[in-house]
Design brief:
Blueprint (H helix, E strand, L loop, with lengths): L2 E4 L6 H11 L7 E4 L10 H10 L4 E3 L3 H9 L4 H5 L3 H7 L4 H9 L4 E4 L4 E4 L9 H16 L3 H7 L14 H13 L3 E2 L21 E2 L12 E4 L8 E3 L2 E3 L10 E5 L5 E5 L12
Parallel strand pairs: 1-2, 2-3, 5-8, 8-10
Antiparallel strand pairs: 1-11, 4-5, 6-7, 9-10, 11-12
Helix pairs in contact: 7-9
Amino acid sequence: MATYAIGDLQGCYDPLQRLLEKLRFDPSRDQLWFCGDLVNRGGQSLEVLRLVRSLDSVSLVVLGNHDLALLSIAERSADDQRRVNPDLRRVLEAPDAQELLKWLRFRPLLHADQTLNFALVHAGLAPKWTIKTAARRAREIEHKLRGHGYKKLFRRMYGDKPATWSQKLEGAERQRVIINVMTRMRYCDKRGRMLLGHKGPPGTQPDGYYPWFEVPGKVEREYRVVCGHWSSLGLFQGLGVYAIDTGCVWGGPLTALELGPEPRVIQVKGNANPPSHKDA
């Protein structure tokens, strides 16, 4: 039996199929963890959603920023939906769209496994959040997503402020910060103030900001952390963090990490027809 974490797919169905073949994935024996961002840009988001949903009994998915964006778009007007890229429109116009979107909305923001000694999140964790703390914060959002107020959450979740987590935050601001930490963050300062607009690799950020996993004074966490989201970072293994978004949608490899005492990296060729430019 093996458990494999898989990096951001962003609609890259063919590379996912190649990876599962290389892993010799056996659903009667193996488990899959997906780092989020199942959809957008790759041209095969609908196929990815259908395949991953079909594996629901042997896999888990944490939500990424592109997944949340799709869910938000699905609640907007028909005119707004027609403005999104063709890849997402195929999902929105599919006959099984409502089933797929409801399934996606019920995915968690964070997963932790004591036996494997690993936690899974799309982007990152605030410097002072232990895994136990992060799990509590994630449940706040999951409760909203799965309840009657999810449409209000989607309307209010966008924005870069507040930039810092505080226990004193309430309502939409509190929810926005939690979502930004777990699905958008790359850099923050010693106080946890996020630099959400900067997407370059380490070394390109302004003075005083650090990759979220290198912030001085960060807490020691109970489990190792697997994440995605940061394609310009590439494959990173260190400081108890395994970042496995290697830019599959942009033509980089698609990466899997076999979870265990000594994690093993497995890669296949990524998207053969990458988008012309990175817009987000």
